[in-house]
Amino acid sequence: MENQALGPPADLDALYHAMSDPTRRAVVEQLVAGPAAVSELAGPLPISLPTFLKHLKVLERSGIVRTEKQGRVRTCHLQPERLGPAEDWFASQRRRMERRLDRLADLAEDLERNPQ
User: pLDDT tens digit string along 65-92?
Assistant: First the structure.
């Protein structure tokens, strides 16, 4: 079991890092519609192709994006299942917070019923 005080497991760090940048989030949003060539993804962004490729490499290392090359075209595919561990971690944090808030609400009700 992970130590909650230390935050998410180390394998999630790459996911959070990948999704922390607006350019990389834009690429992921584009890929939700389906696979796309690198040139299609890079075209609308106000950055150079070498800079875009650095962003793409971060997404590939995190496992969120997979690329394949056919001839001269490199196509990117979203790997949505790779986001599952991050979703699970956020859900567990939400449940912990909800339990704490429920205990606080119970305490407030007890204090209203039994003022001392």
Answer: 999 999 999 999 999 988 888 888 889 9
What does the alpha-carbon distance between residue 114 and residue 101 come to, in Å, rounded to a whole number?
20
Closest CA to 15 of 88, 75, 73: 88
* Number of domains composing the chain: 1
Question: How far, in Å, CA of 28 to CA of 64, rounded?
Answer: 8
Q: Is 64 exposed, middle or buried (0-12, 13-18, 19+ CB in 10 A)?
A: buried
Asked, for residue 3, whether it belongs to a domain, the answer is no
Domain, as residue range, for 22? 8-113
pTM for the model: 0.73
CATH number, position 17: 1.10.10.10
